[in-house]
UniProtKB/TrEMBL annotation, chains A, B:
Pathway: Purine metabolism; IMP biosynthesis via de novo pathway; 5-amino-1-(5-phospho-D-ribosyl)imidazole from N(2)-formyl-N(1)-(5-phospho-D-ribosyl)glycinamide: step 1/2. Belongs to the PurS family. It catalyses: N(2)-formyl-N(1)-(5-phospho-beta-D-ribosyl)glycinamide + L-glutamine + ATP + H2O = 2-formamido-N(1)-(5-O-phospho-beta-D-ribosyl)acetamidine + L-glutamate + ADP + phosphate + H(+). Keywords: ATP-binding, Cytoplasm, Ligase, Nucleotide-binding, Purine biosynthesis. It is found in: Cytoplasm. InterPro entries: PurS, PurS-like_sf. Its EC number is 6.3.5.3. Signal peptide: none annotated. One of its GO terms (biological process) is 'de novo' IMP biosynthetic process. This is Phosphoribosylformylglycinamidine synthase subunit PurS. Part of the phosphoribosylformylglycinamidine synthase complex involved in the purines biosynthetic pathway. Catalyzes the ATP-dependent conversion of formylglycinamide ribonucleotide (FGAR) and glutamine to yield formylglycinamidine ribonucleotide (FGAM) and glutamate. The FGAM synthase complex is composed of three subunits. PurQ produces an ammonia molecule by converting glutamine to glutamate. PurL transfers the ammonia molecule to FGAR to form FGAM in an ATP-dependent manner. GO terms for cellular component: cytoplasm.
Length: 76, 76
């Protein structure tokens, strides 16, 4: 089974990578960009009987940093 | 308007970060994980009249490396 984990910084947490991308887009002449945030997209191939609780456990223990990041698990 | 750009490595391209995560999950006792790939999730706040062509241009010129990465644009 394929699972996608979307990890993004919580609102209010400073995102230097996002700011750099924002700046670079402006430098390339793209106007109208108001904000850029960069997160991670983790695609896992797991056993079909993997429970939601196990996936959540993976996120909390390794894939996301709960202090500054939100995550969302999506079964594909 | 909010836009999400999903950037992932093309199949066949070596993903050391994904392998490290895979290894770490096994080390934590999670069994049944067959594969892990790590990509980027870029969230942009852009002007409402931004066209698909402009978004595609941003991806090709800055957000994704077309040689080794695929990207998908999603309007939220």
């Amino acid at each position: 089974m394929k699972v996608r984990v979307h990890v993004s910084l919580k609102p209010g947490v400073l995102d230097p990578q996002g700011r750099a991308v924002h700046h670079a887009l402006e430098g390339l002449g793209f106007t109208g960009v108001q904000d850029v945030r960069v997160g991670r997209l983790i695609e896992l191939e797991v056993a079909d009987d993997t429970t939601d609780a196990t996936l959540d456990d993976m996120c909390r223990r390794l894939l996301a940093n709960g202090v500054v990041e939100n995550y969302r698990v999506e079964r594909v």
